Amino acid sequence: MALQVLIIGLGQFGMSLAKTLGQKGAEIVGVDIDKEAVNIASAFIDDAICMDATEENALAKLSPQKRDIVVCAIGSKEPSILSTALLVEMGCENVVARATDKIHERILKAIGADNVFNPDDEYGKKFAYKIL
Predict the structure, then answer these.
(1) DSSP class of residue 25?
(2) Residues in a beta bridge with 113
């Protein structure tokens, strides 16, 4: 059975994550408030949905607690925090959240995200090792 992943936020990071995981055989549902991003993602993921993931009723309809992994890849702090809090409250067992700075990271951890990462920070470290 394929890994079921819900990705909330189809910006540059979320889009790349969705495409790569899909190529590796995961079943991907992608969500974004931007219709253009959803249209682009619909070409290579299983289901692309245009919606506001900070709206509890809309998010609940996706049954996120039934997914193997839920990634909140939203870059804006407030929507990221709200979506992550809702996912945790809905009983999602593997919530991965994207942070943009240390305060954002602390808040996401405090509200219960299972894994928090900063892709800019992580890539900066990897790139530094490549040029040294």
Answers:
(1) T
(2) none
Q: Fill in the DSSP letter of residue 53.
A: T
Residue 36 vs residues 23, 62, 127: alpha-carbon distances, Å: 21, 20, 30
pTM to 2 decimals? 0.93
Instruction: With residue 92 as reference, give the H or E element that holds it.
Output: none
pLDDT tens string for the chain (132 positions)? 799 999 999 999 999 999 999 999 999 999 999 999 999 999 999 999 999 999 999 999 999 999 999 999 999 999 999 999 999 999 999 999 999 999 999 999 999 999 999 988 888 888 888 887
Distance of CA 66 to the CA centre of its chain: 15
**Both tokens of residue 1?**
């059975």
Tell me the helices (H) and strands (E) count for the chain, helix number first: 6, 6
Question: What does the alpha-carbon distance between residue 21 and residue 73 come to, in Å, rounded to a whole number?
Answer: 14
CA nearest to 73, candidates 18, 114, 22, 19: 18
